[in-house]
Amino acid sequence: MGIDLGTCNTLVSVRGQGIVLNEPSVVAVRKGTNQVLYNGQAVGWAAKEMLGKTPGGITAIRPLKDGVISDFEITEAMLTYFIRKANGNRWQKPRVVISVPSGITAVEKRAVYESAQRAGARRVYLCEEPLAAAVGAGLPYTEATASMIVDIGGGTTEVAILSLADIAVCESLRVAGDDMDEAIIAHMKKTYNLMIGEQTSERIKIEIGSASPMGEEKSMEVRGRDMVSGLPRKTVVTAEEIREALSEPVSAILECVNRTLERTEPELSADLVENGIMLAGGGALLRGLATVMQNSTGLPVKLSDDPLTCVARGTCMFLENIELLKQTLENDLDN
Ligand code: ADP
Ligand code: MG
Questions:
Q1: Alpha helices, DSSP H, located in 38-168
Q2: pLDDT in tens, 164-173
Q3: CA of 152 relative to ligand 2 center, distance in Å
Q4: Cα 167 to middle of ligand 2, angstroms
Q5: For the chain, how long is the longest CA-to-CA vector?
Q6: How far, in whole angstroms, is CA 1 from its chain's centroid?
Q7: Is the pTM of this model over 0.85?
Q8: What are residue 148's phi and psi, to 5 degrees?
Q9: Is 60 exceeded by the pLDDT of residue 333?
């Protein structure tokens, strides 16, 4: 199985079955103790659902929120739960490829590796997220030509240029979808004295958010708590003002892309003129993002098919390739 251990969502893909699990990377713990609830059963959707309904005492943790592992035990509980759930009743232990954010340290990688082994994996391979994204997006990453991938997740944006199945240049930026949500929250506070929650903010981003004007401009009614009176109130926001609010995180992502291009060898740069940039990750779904990136880099920019599952599908294909590679090696040895 292939696992996309994302900052927002974890997806598991199994050969021949496609995506078998897609849950938030969230764990419910007892407040202040880091003790995972109900023998590690309060993970993913269960953790998210529990939260709205359980006042106090329980809190949600996203152990990979910023692309680094904030708590090893919680991460292990999460990974164990997802691997067991995806493996179902099969008696055979799975071979697992896990994509990890390219910014995590060697110690964190080791922790993920050992967690997966303890969770019952027969064999564990780690794969850098940009590589998995490139495989999933169908880029010719093994060829002697440059491919560029920009994966915008919740906590991090991973920008990488690949050639010959390796990463030539990459940067992991801690600005992505979550920062867009935060920018909208800040805008609502500043402009309307209205406090809104993270889920409302994400909904605004998905419904009317954009990086450049996209024809018909929508508006939306937003509810929250008035900061002065403390009472519930609603107001209407327009796509234009949300675009303005999102301009800071969007610029940070564009700058990161340009910085990475500046660090690229000229021969690889030359390839990119033709090959362009491929976008993946949920954040890439922001309307008009491809257009502004095309303008700021002068390169063709394309959105991958189903950006939210791109990495998970890539990890699964990566596993097949490893097995294929091993098989040919073994055949070569036999002959
Ligand atoms: P990760 O790999 O870090 O877990 P994902 O690739 O799953 O992240 O993407 C999650 C992010 O994508 C979240 O910030 C979410 O709000 C954002 N997102 C999902 N759908 C959309 C959309 N239609 N428009 C803009 N952002 C979106
Ligand atoms: Mg991701």
A1: 45-53, 72-87, 106-118, 129-136
A2: 988 999 999 9
A3: 7
A4: 17
A5: 81
A6: 18
A7: yes
A8: -125, 135
A9: no
Angstrom CA distances, 195 to 176, 191, 203, 205, 308, stand at 21, 11, 15, 16, 29
Site to probe by mutation for ligand 1, drawn from 48, 205, 210 as the one with most ligand atoms within 8 Å of Cβ, is: 205
Q: Which ligand is nearest to the CA of 288?
A: 1
Atom number, ligand 1, closest to the C-alpha of residue 25: 4
The mean pLDDT value of the chain amounts to 92
Owner of token pair 């997006």: 137
Backbone angles phi, psi at 166, to 5 degrees: -135, 160
Ligand 1 atom nearest to CA at 155? 3
How far does the centroid of ligand 1 lie from the alpha carbon of residue 134, in Å? 17
| Paired strand residues for 161 | 148, 169
Gap between the Cα atoms of 187 and 197, Å rounded? 12
Which residues' Cβ are closer than 6 Å to ligand 1?
Answer: 6-9, 153-155, 177-178, 202, 205-206, 209, 281-283, 285-286, 308
Mean pLDDT of 194-206: 95
CB under 8 Å to 250, separation ≥6 — which residues? 180, 211, 286, 289, 292
Residue 335: pLDDT above 60?
Answer: no
Residues 223 and 246 sit within 8 Å (Cβ to Cβ): no
Please tell me the predicted confidence (pLDDT) of residue 60. 86
Closest CA to ligand 1's atom 9: 282
The Cβ of residue 34 has, within 10 Å, a number of other Cβ atoms equal to 16
Query: Ligand 2 centroid to 235 CA: how many Å?
Result: 33
Q: Whose CA is nearest to atom 8 of ligand 1?
A: 153
Alpha carbon dihedral 138, 143, 145, 146, in 10-degree steps, equals 50
Q: What is the pLDDT of residues 155-189, one digit of tens each?
A: 999 999 999 988 999 999 999 999 999 999 999 99
Mean pLDDT in residue range 300-309? 97
Contact 120, 149 (CB under 8 A): no
Rounded CA-CA distance 174/149 in Å is 16
Question: In the predicted model, is pLDDT for residue 88 greater than 60?
Answer: yes
Question: Between 57 and 305, where is the model more confident?
Answer: 305
